[in-house]
Amino acid sequence: MITVEKLLASSVHLGHSIKEKNPKMSPYIYGERKGIHIIDLLQTLIQTRKVCKFLSYSTKKVLFIGTKVQFASVIENCAIKSNSYYVTQRWLGGMLTNWLTVKTCLEKLEKIFDFKILTKKENLILKKKKIKLEKYFSGIKKMNKLPDIAIIIGQKKEINAIKECLKLNITLITLMDTNCDPTLTDFIIPANDDSLSSISLILDALNEHI
């Protein structure tokens, strides 16, 4: 079970510089120390438990989105454990809003390799395309339909993905630092979104309830 002590030990409370503060995050800030905002861990605990309860009673499919290199393996492992989907490479515009087109392209590419009439050069070109597509779409290639829920790690960096989720009415759960906008999500978890230990602790807690 997640506790304030565990949150503190994982540096979840360390926010951004006071100069980067988003005023809308004020209700989730405890104070400041040496020019750094301190996140209210009681709020983090309350919001995390709220999200966990929501996930516990949901049978809907979840998509993890976070493209910071240092978090890729953690996000991927969480998604695989809970039979969810993930995007850990660069977000390509239209991955959700043009999902049917993206899905069709992936399926066609797989089928092309069944033919024996291709030349070596054609095969080489297609293999290069496949490697590139695998890099960006490996976590969603088995996704038959749009996800019901998206968990966002790093709102600032994932704003394009967020815009697509909002347009498609996909429920958003966001790990949100002191420089983020809480109006762009359905569920907020105030937390340090630059720390591996912080991200790992929160995602593990959520993953247990998916």
Automatic annotation (TrEMBL):
One of its GO terms (cellular component) is mitochondrial small ribosomal subunit. Keywords: Ribonucleoprotein, Ribosomal protein. It comes from the Eukaryota. This is 30S ribosomal protein S2, chloroplastic. GO terms for molecular function: structural constituent of ribosome. It comes from Genlisea aurea. Belongs to the universal ribosomal protein uS2 family. InterPro entries: Ribosomal_uS2, Ribosomal_uS2_bac/mit/plastid, Ribosomal_uS2_CS, Ribosomal_uS2_flav_dom_sf. One of its GO terms (biological process) is translation. The keyword Ribosomal protein applies.
